[in-house]
């Protein structure tokens, strides 16, 4: 869990510095942060890499909902679409 948070933490912190949501940021927020114009460019996921990032994030969201799925900790390390 800590490795996944470390992977997306800088992106979500940059996104949330504008929105200041102190209660909950979910999958939709993460995917928005990845492409939002308000997120600093150095943190955004480019359109060519977004499908792999989205597949990775959705696979993590599905954990616990399917039988024995495993997901790489870093989305660049083998998520669908790479």
Layout of SSEs?
Blueprint lengths: L1 H18 L7 H9 L14 H13 L20
If you had to describe this structure to a student in words, what would you say it looks like?
With 82 residues, the protein is an all-alpha fold. The protein contains three helices and no strands. It has helices at 2-19, 27-35, 50-62. Helix 1 packs across helix 2 (27-35) and helix 2 runs antiparallel to helix 3. The chain starts with a helix and ends in a 20-residue tail after the last helix. The relative contact order is 0.16. The mean pLDDT is 82.
Shape: globular
Strand % is under 5%
Distance between the amino and carboxyl termini? 22 Å
Secondary structure tally, helices: 3
**Structural class given helices, strands, pairing?**
mainly alpha
| Main sheet summary | none
* Pattern of helices and strands: HHH
List low-pLDDT spans: none
What does the radius of gyration come to? 13 Å
Helix content: 40-55%
Q: What are its keywords?
A:
single chain; 82 residues; mainly alpha; 49% helix
Give a quick precis of the structure:
This protein has 82 residues and is mainly α. It has helices at 2-19, 27-35, 50-62.
